[in-house]
Every structure is written in structure tokens, then in C-alpha cells.
Amino acid sequence: MKSTKLKSLRPQARSQQAAKLKVSSGSQKHVPSKPAVPGNFQKDHISLKSLEGFTIKALQSTGLAEVDAKVAAEVLVTTDAWGTYTHGTKLLRGYLRRLKGGGLRVSGRPKIVAEGPAWATIDGDSSLAMVTSTFAMRTAIQKARLCGIACVGVRNSCHFGAAGFYTWQAAREGMIGLSMANDVPSVAAPGSRGAITGSNPISYAIPAGKFRPILLDMSVATVAGGKVYAARTRGEQIPATWLLGADGRPTTDPSGYPQVGALQPAAGHKGYGIALLIEALAGILSGATITWGIKSWLFDDFSAPTQHGAFFIAIDVNAMVPGEQFAKRVEGLVDEIHNSPRADGVARIFVPGEMEWERYDLAQQQGLSLPSDVWESLYESAELASVNLKQAMA
After folding, report:
1. Residues 287-330: pLDDT tens digits?
2. Domain ranges across the chain
3. Checking phi first, is residue 367 left (phi over 0); if not, alpha (psi -120 to 50) or beta?
4. Four-residue CA torsion sign, 44, 49, 53, 59
5. Close Cβ partners of 120 (under 8 Å, ≥ 6 residues apart)
6. Rounded to whole angstroms, how far apart are CA atoms 241 and 265?
7. Class assignment of domain 111-323?
């Protein structure tokens, strides 16, 4: 009975607070910069070093140790450099609110609470999830060097940003990496009237020899909730594949979201099935909270832990085949894809992550042209941290 009440009230409460905080959580990649926020400082291009320096200062203002602030800043700024602006420094203000509120512990330290030769369980101690997640993947990599493959479950964590950063950790070490996390429900199951699973991100990265790692980072929903919310605020209709209405049927009307309705799972039962696998690994096996027991990191009480779970796998390819042989075969696969016949008007066929790596390289050379909503978030972050944004970005 209690869980039913929670299930019915939570989306409305979250929606009201989202409006208050002016936060959206959509998937937004490589969006051109918009006009500057009136009366505020905004640079056409900001160097990655300057953005990272500001992020570190803002996080340290909460009492977070410099070493942890640097880890989190690297995750967020790298994500911006990939062009995935919704999961980069735009999220900084949310982390600052939780650090200030106490739901994220500035002195928290992730620790291994159980382990074997090829596995471990980590308690995140409600510390910043980027710190916990990099520690978890590092642990998986170390164990995989000894055993060939290793998995690490995480509990008592929070929103960990872009899942792809952690699989990249493994790929940089010549290993195949997988990462995933659970979240508060926002995605329907086939036949349901409302949300059943979280958007539950999952990522893999594969070292690719002369090429950059093949890297996929996705959620189990057809589209990110922020896109639906944005259409609602603009008074626009949406494709019938995005959202279910109150009756559990596809709808083109986003006006009730997120109080009413749920996101549709990617590829129907396939996305739903993957979501349950992630819930089983990141939530149940790791000992974390699942489904409606998880608190929204953006909208629920900032003084309370969110209890997210995560799961990380590292596979040392050298344990099964020589690394050079593996690299050559992946290179051959990528070449085959690149050289495949293309549809009319298509210049290139990409492998997952290729577009992100090209944006990353460009950002290293030219800096970032951030969208206006990211700048808005950075201004709020500067106010929360009492940091002069203009000086920090100089």
C-alpha cells in the first residue's frame, strides 16, 4: 500500500520541483551555442582547462577534497567535450545542491565491503558517484588483470553522470568495459499504464587498435524525458513513439508529462528486457535500492541519500587472445563498416562513439561553444559556490 502511494505521488512532486528549479534532463548532443543569457558573461569558446578549473573550484566550495573534485570535473568536462551536454557540467548545480544539503557526503569514501578474486561489492558511502564509479571500474580493471574478467557492484551511490566515461577507463587499459546503473522509474513496460523501470543507462567500450575505442552509451528509453518536457513547454506535439498517456497508450500530447504518462522503452520489449538486466545487476546483485525505493537525485530531499546502484565489468582481452591479434580484428571490423555501401546522400557510416571522439578532438583544439542552457546552469553553480564565473573562466 505504501509503495502504491509513493508511486502515484512521486512524479507530480518531482514535476513541481523541476519547474521550480528550471531543470530538464534530456539527451542533447552537439547543440549549437545559443545567444548569451542577457546581462551575463558568456564566452563564445571556453577552453576545457578553464571549464575544468571552474568545476573544481565550485565543488571544493562545498568542502569536497581537491582530489575528488578533480575526478568529478574530469568526468563532467570530458562528457561536454563529447558533445553530450545534458550529462556534463550542466549537472554541476544538481551535485552542488546535494553536497550542500548533505545527501551527498563531502567526506564520503567508497569502500570494498565484500570481494573475491574476480568480483567486489563497493559501498559508495553516499559520496559523489563519479568518485565511487571511477574507483569501482579501477577495482574491476585490477582484478581483471589477475583473473581475465572481473565485475564490481556498487550500492549507496547516486547519479553517476555519463556511463561511457567509466567504460573508457577500461578501454584505455586495453580492456573491454561495461558499465550500467539503475534509476528511479520513468520508463514503461509493454502493457503497463505507468513507469516500471528507470531509464537505466548502459555503456560498453571496446579497444580498437589504431582507431579510438568503439563506445556506446545509451538509456533503455526510446527518447530522453527532457525532450518530452521541452516539447510540452513549447506547446508542441511529439512522435507517437515517445510517450504513453495515462491509459497506457501511445500519445502525441506531452501536456501531462511528467505527472502523467511514462517514456516508452527502446524497441519495446527489448529495451524493457535490458532494463531488467541492469536492475538485476546494478540494483539487486549489488545490494542497492531498486525501482521506486530510489530517490530522484534532482528533485527529492537534498539532505537524503538517493541509494542508486551501479555495476561495472572489465574484460582483459589478453586473457583469451593476444592483444595485438584482437586489435587487428577490431580494426578490420571497423574498416569493413566504413567501407560498406552507403545509402544515397550519406557521406559516412560511423561506429558508436566515432562522432563523440571527433567532437572531443575539436574541443581539445578549439575549446567548447556551450549551449545557453549549460551557461545558465553554470551561472547557478557559480552562485551556489560563491565563485566568480568570469574570473574563473578567464
Report:
1. 999 999 999 998 899 999 999 999 999 999 999 999 999 999 99
2. 21-26+40-103+366-393, 111-323
3. left
4. positive
5. 112, 114, 136, 139, 140, 143, 150, 152, 153
6. 9
7. alpha beta
Full DSSP string of 166-209? HHHHHHHTTEEEEEEE--S--EE-TT-SSEEE----EEEEEEET
Q: Rounded CA gap, 327 and 36, in Å? A: 45
Nearest to 214, CA basis, from 365, 356, 30, 29: 356
Which residue is associated with the grid cell 563497493? Answer: 122
Whether CATH 1.10.1530.10 fits 21-26+40-103+366-393: yes
- The set of residues, in sequence order, having a beta carbon less than 8 Å from that of 207 and lying 6+ positions away, is 171, 174, 175, 176, 213, 317, 326, 327, 330
Contact 134, 68 (CB under 8 A): no
Q: What is the DSSP letter of 282?
A: I
Which residue in this structure is represented by grid cell 563532467?
A: 76
pTM of the model: 0.89
Closest by Cα among 88, 98, 151 to 126: 98
The predicted structure's pLDDT at residue 223: 86
- The one-letter code for the residue type at 204 is Y
The answer to whether residue 41 scores a pLDDT higher than 90 is no
Query: Which of 23-32, 123-132, 241-250 reaches the highest mean pLDDT?
Result: 123-132
Yes or no: say if 158 and 308 are a contact pair by the CB < 8 Å rule.
Answer: yes
Q: Helix (H, G, I), strand (E, B), or coil: what is residue 313? A: strand
